[in-house]
Amino acid sequence: MGRKPAITRKAVVTAAVEIIDRDGMEGFSLERVASALGVRAPSLYNHFADRTEILAEVARAIVLETPRIPDPAPGQWREWLIAESLEFRNTLLRHPNLVPVVFAWFPESLLHKLYAQYSDLLGAHGVPASHHLFLLEAAHRMTVGSAVCTATGRPALIELPSGGAAESRERTGSVARDADELLFVDMLRAFLSGVDLGDPD
């Protein structure tokens, strides 16, 4: 008898991501994941309690793909938060079929950890502690909401004002991929500029 192929949690998640990336959620099943790994579906229960736990780990894996932006220079925390949000949005949109999965099974414990790190950074840049959670939660919701709209093909109902594209590209330090991305950056910048922190900048 041949030796049964060994599988790991990481291998299961990788197979699930590949299947959903390619075929969408309608193509996802425990049987297909197991087949991709050369095992039978019941073997997956040695690593995961159920389908939901696999999807939760898939969502976590996608979130963790997001690269970190270097800490901001003095007075540049707003542009840093925009850049961080844009990197997360881009990560999500590299996996458009998985955006609803991340939305539904977002790893809350990871989000709390990131909020704590980002709160420390905002505090170091003089942002009042009373505003940290508001700013981070608003940016997070705007980011995920924008990714959901783009991934599901929901078109924007407004056009960017003339000159908006060039300004957004210059301020983010990268060439934006499409009008939805430019709109997202401009919306987030407008929000952050309008928040009254009681400071001169």
List the topology elements:
Blueprint: H1 9-23, H2 30-37, H3 51-64, H4 77-93, H5 99-104, H6 108-124, H7 129-151, H8 164-172, H9 179-194
Organism: Rhodococcus gannanensis
InterPro entries: Homeodomain-like_sf (IPR009057), HTH-type_TetR-like_transc_reg (IPR050109), HTH_TetR (IPR001647), Tet_transcr_reg_TetR (IPR003012), Tet_transcr_reg_TetR-rel_C_sf (IPR036271)
Domain HTH tetR-type: 6-66
Largest beta-sheet details: none
Assembly type of the chains comes to single chain
What is the count of distinct domains?
Answer: 2
User: How large is the radius of gyration?
Assistant: 20 Å
- Percentage of residues in helical conformation: 55-70%
What would CATH call the architecture of the largest domain? Orthogonal Bundle
CATH topology of the largest domain: Tetracycline Repressor, domain 2
Per the principal axes of the C-alpha atoms, what is the gross shape? elongated
- Number of E-type strands: 0
What gap, in angstroms, lies between the N and C termini? Answer: 72 Å
* Broad structural category: mainly alpha
Total number of helices: 9
Low-confidence stretches: 171-176
Q: How do the SSEs run, as a string of H and E?
A: HHHHHHHHH
User: Could you tell me the mean pLDDT?
Assistant: 87
